[in-house]
Amino acid sequence: MNDHRILNALSYFSILFAPIIVPVLIWIFAKSEEVTHHAKAALLTHIIPTIAGVLCFSSVFVTALTSGGALSSLSFFITGSLFIFTLIAVVGLFIFNIVRGIQMLCEKKEEDIWI
């Protein structure tokens, strides 16, 4: 099996055990342009849920600070919507990373046929 395919798949599968660290290390130390491309893509799909989670939890704290008043129902609606969006984004990108890692392992190239 080609080492490039393993590193590409590892970049995506790292969402299970070290979401941001592994793609950064592969991106820094990889010598192939293909591997660095997939490491960057995996890093992006690992960072987006992290940023969304930080925004969601900071929104929860802001909502907790605004107790009562006319804006409380609006802030609860916005917080609930942001929480649902964050949940969908995290689950969707988790599934995307797993599927993309499987695609990297199953990918056939002409050089692999003769090995």
3D structure, described in words:
The protein starts with a helix and ends with a helix. It has 5 helices and no strands. Helix 1 runs antiparallel to helix 4 (72-106), helix 2 packs antiparallel against helix 3 and helix 3 runs antiparallel to helix 4 (72-106). The model has no long low-confidence stretch (mean pLDDT 82). It is elongated. The protein has 115 residues and is an all-alpha fold. The chain is 80% helix and 0% strand. It has one domain.
Quick description:
By secondary structure, the protein is mostly helical. Helix content is 80%, strand content 0%.
Note the overall shape. Answer: elongated
User: N-to-C terminal Cα separation, in Å?
Assistant: 8 Å
As for the number of domains, it is: 1
Average of per-residue pLDDT values: 82
Q: Count of DSSP E strands?
A: 0
Structural class: mainly alpha
Main beta-sheet annotation: none
Strand content: under 5%
Helicity, as a percent range: over 70%
Please write the string of helix (H) and strand (E) elements. Answer: HHHHH
Number of helices: 5
User: Are there runs of 5+ residues with pLDDT below 50, and where?
Assistant: none
Radius of gyration: 19 Å
